Amino acid sequence: MKAAVIVFPGSNRERDMARALKQAVGTPPAMVWHAETALPAGTDLVVLPGGFSYGDYLRCGAIAALSPIMSAVSEHAKRGGLVLGVCNGFQILCEARLLPGVLVRNAGVGFLCKPVHLRVETSASPFTRGYRRGERITVPIAHGEGNWVADSETVAKVEDRGLVAFRYCDERGRVSPGTSPNGATNEIAGLFNAKKNVLGLMPHPENAIEPAHGSTDGFGLFLSMAGALADA
Amino acid sequence: MRARVVVTLKAGVLDPQGKAIEGALSGLGFSGVDGVRQGKVFDLVTRHTDPTKAKAEIGAMCERLLANTVIESYTIEIMG
Fold first, then answer.
1. Which position among A17, A27, A46, A105 has the lowest Cβ density within 10 Å, counted as fewest Cβ atoms?
2. Number of compact structural domains in chain B
3. Distance separating alpha carbons of residues B12 and B53, to the nearest angstrom
């Protein structure tokens, strides 16, 4: 698997992401500066890491979505290549219209930094195939703008097509109104594009891969991607 | 030519910042506030001299960058 992590001015989780990718596949990813116009030849997976690209100016992810490298990322996605966006990466994917909706300020206004429980909504994707459907995992969040919203038509489409990857749940894996810490519509923590080759999620699976992190539940996502690409 | 763009959240979109400001205003003793919605103002200087052309171009800027039309709407005022 050849992975590329895009580094924007203000990214801050790119090293954690690189470490998780290396642990899952054995080789470190290419670190690609946002001003590049092409991905390294043979890139299978593009990752947009967390952080505060461009200081979150205008709207989170809005300026990064127009970075030179993003045309190549869009092309990669259109060809069916895997794209993962975590936290600010999710915000960038929404602003780039590679995923529907937008992430707005948490309903409680404050920045949230804590472990949360997620329910895996499907194992039928290259990102979640290593999990069981309905499995509860524990992964940290760290964001001020993680409240996913969209118009009702878009929400219905996302639900009808089974494009929700993860929902915030309680410790017993139950999803109900209010289990989302940030007010996200339908407790959505992560979602796919229509072809399920693009995933965006607010929680940080790269920060739940070792016992010292308090949870290793996030590693399944990296093993899933590595497995999917090895089979491809 | 100068222009002012006002970007506001669409009706129905939750505005936690507006809510927090509303709470702070009532904390200051302003009891007559029934709602606060926070928005953004952009003052642009454009080289266009034709207001119609200026407005069309600024409209494109709003669609591409200044507003996220999933949640926001915008108005453009040509200030002369």
1. A27
2. 1
3. 32
A87 Cβ neighbours under 8 A, 6+ residues apart: A13, A49, A50, A51, A141, A142, A143, A146, A201, A202, A203, A204
Say what the ipTM of the complex is.
0.87
Angle between helices A219-231 and A14-25 (to 10 degrees): 50
Of A58, A66, A108, the CB nearest to B16: A108
Q: Is the Cβ–Cβ distance between A90 and A103 less than 8 Å?
A: yes
* CATH value at residue B65: 3.30.1280.10
Residue of B nearest to A64 (CA): B65
Cα A216 to Cα A9, A114, A169, A227: the distances in Å are 29, 15, 18, 17
Q: Would you state the pLDDT for residue A42?
A: 96
User: Which residues of chain A are within 8 Å of residue B14 when distances are taken between CB atoms?
Assistant: 104, 107, 147, 149, 183
> Are the Cβ atoms of A102 and B19 closer than 8 angstroms?
no
Residues 5-64 of B with CB under 8 A from A: 13-14, 16-17, 19-20
Catalytic residue among A34, A143, A206, A213: A206
Dihedral angle computed from the Cα positions of residues A13, A17, A23 and A27, in that order, rounded to the nearest 10 degrees = -120
pLDDT digits (tens, 9 = 90+) for A95-122: 999 999 999 999 999 999 999 999 999 9
Q: Which domain holds residue A68?
A: 3-231
A102/B contact by beta carbon, under 8 A: yes
Q: What are phi and psi of A197, to 5 degrees?
A: -105, 0
CA distances from A134 to A117, A154, A165, A173, A194 (A): 12, 23, 10, 8, 21
Per-residue model confidence as pLDDT tens digits over A126-165: 999 999 999 999 999 999 999 999 999 999 999 999 999 9
How many structural domains is chain A composed of? 1
Q: Which domain holds residue B72?
A: 2-78
Q: What is the CATH number of the domain that holds A183?
A: 3.40.50.880
